[in-house]
Design goal:
With 373 residues, the protein is mainly α. Helices cover 70% and strands 0% of the residues. It is globular, with a radius of gyration of 21 Å.
């Protein structure tokens, strides 16, 4: 491989993470915000077949992981910010790199907005949402300042708690009504495909791996790690959709947070109740991991675009801007639902799956041309 398609260089991030830590980082990074709201949005299309939509949506996840892995093979020590310049040239590559930074900065603001809206609208009604916005951003910024290894170690603890609390849904087994899943494919596969498109947006976020693969301790396990993470996300989302559908039926499409609704109905022997408090606490931990990863990618990417010697110096300035953008972009839930349904699936897939695919095709074409001369 010629020098244009690779090479060693001084990296801004010195930390290394294990494949297991990477898996623990990616699972909540993908599902944290979506697990509460996506079922109702996908259900509007798929109806009785909404449990299938994560399976369909995961296809984009597996494809994105493969594309990211192939790019990682060509540029093993580089993030997309860096190899974009190698593939497209310095000027165009820098523009693309800046666009990716802005994309993930905007994405971080959107995540924070969804988080603050849920807490202030469903849990702590009398507390201004800005309190939760500042809280999650500040804690995540501290983790990002600590470096990738700090985020990874935090993810091991937070994700373990986050996933473990999902087992509380098993307490609803006696209330499950399988009849709500029938008739299967009543209107064919097209509604399921439309519902799966909503999930495609979240699964396309596996492009974030392209910023993390350069720092994995065992590069040979990169593809397996990414595929496993995508598979775990698919299983968790299918598991959640199953309970939402079989407990609420298609009426779940009328609730923006159907998962929260069914959890509030859990009662063990008429004594153990209010499980939503436990679920909310674990969900906060999951969102902490997600915001940390997004903010880390935006900070690292911006430092690479402008050739800074240290990305940590811009973490807090970016965090302050996040507080503003999280309120400026999405004013209310109505606009948020419309964005998640009509815009985000196409926008996210275009940026995080189609664009990397084009970069891969160009890189492979340049390598073949270089090898033939």
């Amino acid at each position: 491989m010629n020098n244009e398609l690779g090479g060693e260089r001084e990296m801004l991030e010195k930390g290394k993470i294990s494949p297991l830590q990477l898996e623990f980082m990616m699972v909540p990074t993908i599902i944290a915000t979506g697990v509460l709201s996506i079922p109702s949005i996908a259900g509007k299309f798929a109806r009785h077949d909404m449990w299938m939509t994560p399976i369909v949506g995961s296809i984009i996840g597996f494809i994105t992981v493969f594309i990211v892995w192939k790019l990682h093979q060509l540029f093993p020590n580089m993030t997309p910010i860096e190899y974009s310049e190698k593939i497209l040239g310095k000027a165009v590559g820098k523009i693309l790199g800046l666009f990716l930074v802005l994309f993930y900065f905007h994405g971080t603001g959107l995540v924070v907005k969804q988080y603050a809206n849920f807490i202030s609208g469903n849990v702590m009604f009398h507390t201004p949402s800005v309190v939760f916005t500042i809280g999650i951003i500040f804690v995540s910024a501290l983790a990002v300042r600590g470096g990738l290894e700090v985020i990874a170690r935090s993810a091991i603890i937070c994700t373990t708690i986050y996933i473990s609390t999902a087992l509380t849904l098993l307490l609803l087994l006696r209330d499950v009504e399988i009849g709500f899943m029938l008739p299967i494919l009543e209107n064919g596969v097209l509604p399921v495909m439309k519902g799966g498109l909503v999930y495609n947006a979240w699964f396309s976020e596996f492009f974030l791996l392209s910023f993390l693969f350069p720092f994995i301790k065992d590069p040979k396990r990169s593809l397996k790690t990414g595929m496993k993470a995508s598979f775990y996300v698919m299983l968790i989302l299918t598991y959640v959709n199953f309970f939402v559908l079989t407990i609420l039926g298609i009426s779940s499409v009328n609730q923006f947070y159907p998962v929260y609704s069914i959890i509030r109905g859990i009662s063990v022997m008429g004594f153990f109740q209010n499980f939503e408090v436990l679920i909310t606490a674990s969900w906060v931990l999951g969102n902490f991991v997600k915001v940390s990863v997004f903010l880390y990618v935006a900070s690292l990417g911006l430092a690479q675009v402008f050739k800074l010697s240290n990305y940590r110096i811009i973490v807090f300035p970016l965090s302050l801007l996040l507080v503003l953008i999280s309120y400026w972009d999405i004013p209310n839930i109505t606009v948020l639902v419309d964005y998640l349904t009509r815009i985000q699936p196409f926008y996210f897939i275009l940026v995080q799956t189609v664009l990397p695919l084009l970069l891969l095709i160009i890189a492979l074409a340049r390598r073949l041309r270089g090898g033939s001369t």
